[in-house]
Specification:
By secondary structure, the protein is mostly helical. It has helices at about 20-40, 45-50, 75-80, 85-105, 110-130, 140-155, 170-185, 195-210, and strands at about 160-165, 165-170. It has a single domain (about 5-210), classed as Rhomboid-like fold, CATH 1.20.1540. A two-stranded antiparallel ribbon has the order 1-2. Helix 6 runs antiparallel to helix 7 (about 170-185) and helix 6 (about 140-155) packs across helix 8 (about 195-210). The longest helix has 22 residues, at about 20-40. The protein is globular, with a radius of gyration of 18 Å. Keywords: Hydrolase, Membrane, Protease, Transmembrane, Transmembrane helix. It is found in: Membrane.
Length: about 230
Amino acid sequence: MINATNPYESQPATFSRFPPVVKTLLVANVAVFLLMNFSLQVKIPLMKYCALWPVSNPWIFTTHSGWQSPFAPWQMITYGFMHTGFTHLFFNMFAFWMFGSVIERVWGSKRFAFYYFACVFGAAIAQLFVSYGKGYPTIGASGGVFGLLLAYGMMFPRQKLIFIAFPVEARWFVLGYGVVELIMGVTGTMSGVAHFAHLGGMIFGFLLIQFWLGRFPIKPRPGKLF
């Protein structure tokens, strides 16, 4: 649970190797990665149906050139299970395990799962907004992982993270990473990376945590999960 009275003074739980939701999602991501590679061999257009395609037009889903986007609502979740290659999968899953295992142990599996998928969904909304009318899809768990990074930084702000051989407090690491993502997104640096999806995951995660802490006019019910 989040410490609502003093949420920034929590102590990080020890790393748990494979908490249940983390374990399930790790297996699922690896399985989907293998399925993606198999689908290429047998000519099954998995990318068409499961990657996050841009919405070209909110009413007819077509571009000005007449190309029809294969966007579907379920893609706002399924894209988070797909990865471009082994390196993409490995680094996302390593970060997912590193931060997710601690957060799931503190929050519990249900709250953790809800939070993670909310960040994946929020990242999709941000990416759909900035990719409107474009013809390329987005895949990867990074939006959800950035949401976990944000949560870790809020829960354990003074916990040291190693960044290029130097220890950095989690709060400054998260803030710095967010600023870098914003700058690269605005300037178009590394245009093949969905920077605004990363930011979307962080923003949705921040808003959800604020709601759970009772900092919005609509309060969560006492004793309820959400």
